[in-house]
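Take a look at this chain, C-alpha cells included, and explain the fold to me:
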Amino acid sequence: MRTLLPDGPDVALRNRFGGVESLTDFAQRVARWQWNRGCVGRYPHLTPVGTRGWCRSSPGPCADRARGTLDGLRTGRTWRAMRVQPVRLAVGCLIMALLMGTATGCGGSPSTRRPTPAVVVGAPAATGPTTPSAAPRGCDPWASLRPTGPDGPAIARIRQRGLLIAGVDLNSYLWGSVDPATGEVVGFDIDIVWAIARGILGPGARVKFVTTSPEQRVARIRAGDVDVMVRTMTITCQRMTEVAFSTVYFRSGQQLVVPKGSPVRAFDTGLRGRRVCVGAGTTAVDLLAQANLGAIVDLADNHLDCLMRLQEGQTDAILTHGSLAAGLAAQDPMIRVLEPRLDETLYGVAMNPNDTDLVRRVNGILEDYRAGGADSAWLVSYRKWLATNLSDPNAAPPTARYVD
C-alpha cells in the first residue's frame, strides 16, 4: 500500500482524476464543482461541511427557491424541492479517490495551514482481544489516571512510528468533518487530536485520521488499530471495562431533534408509535429502551444518517447528544432541538487499557489544554466551533478528577 505524503503528488490519483496533485487540490475541485451546480457559497448555512446531494436546477431557480424558503415560504413542499440533503459529497469523493488509488496518508502538524491527511474510511476493524476486564468497583466516569510517571512503551511506539493514529468521526459538523474548500479535517474533536499529537511528537507532529463508526470504536481501540479515539465518545462504566478513558473533556446530554411543526414536543408518551432514529452502538439506544415510551427504534449508522431520514420523512425524531444535535440544526434550519437535556454524557479520549503511560500523558496534555482561563486552548476551540450553536454563556472546560 503506497503512502500519500502531505500535500504531495500521488501518481495514481493524478492519473485517475485528471491532474489532481493532492487531496487538498481534489477537495478544492469538489467545492468548485459544487459551486457550479448552483448553491454552495450562496447559502453557506444550508450547505455546511459534509453535505450530500446538490441543487439540480440552474443557479437562478436554485437561488430563487432558497430565497423563498429563507424568507418564510417554509412549506414542506418548498423545502423538499430545494433541500440540500445531509452528508458527505466531499468526503464521499475523497473516499472514492482513496479506494481507487489505494492510498493512505497522514497530515503534518498545523502552523498557518495544516497539510491534508488522507482518510481511512469504513475499513473493517481488525480482529483483536474482546474479552472485557472486570467492572471497576465504585465506578467513577469522571476519574482517570493522574498524569505522572515516565513515558512507557505506548509513547515509544508512537514516537518510533513518527505519527499519531487517531480514530475520529468525519460526519459530525463542528466536531469532525472535512472542509471541502481546503481538504482539511476540522472541528472541536480534531483540535484535541492535534493537541495530543503535538504534546507527544512536538511541533512537527503528524496525524493519521481513521474514521470510525460508533459500533467500531471499542473494537478498533482494543485491536490496536488506533492510538486514541477522539469521537464524542461517552464515558460509561460498561465501556470502562473494555477501554481506558482520559479525564472528561466535554459535558453534553441526550436531546430530541424534530422537524419544525412536529407534534412531538417532549421525550414522553407522545412518542408512542413514532419512529425515533438513534445511532447504533450509542448510549441513545439504551436511553430510549429504558424510557419505555412505546417509540419505534429506528437504528442508523450515525446521527447524520438519522438527519437524512428525518428530512425524507422516514423517521419522526432523532435522539442524540445535544452537542451533535447543534451541528444538525446548523445544517438544516427546518429542524429544532428540544429542551431539556435528558441525561448527562461525559466525553473522554479512549485508549487501549494496556497503554497506561499514554493515558497519563494524554491527561497531562488535557490539563495544559484546559489551562489559561478565557484564553485556554479549550475555550478558543469552543468559541470557534461550538459557541454560536450551543449558546452556553457559562461554558468552561470540565475539571479533571483522578483515581490515584
Remarks:
- Residues 1-105, 109-135 have pLDDT under 50 and may be disordered.
- The first strand starts at residue 2 and ends at 4.
- The radius of gyration is 21 Å.
- The chain has 14 helices and 21 strands.
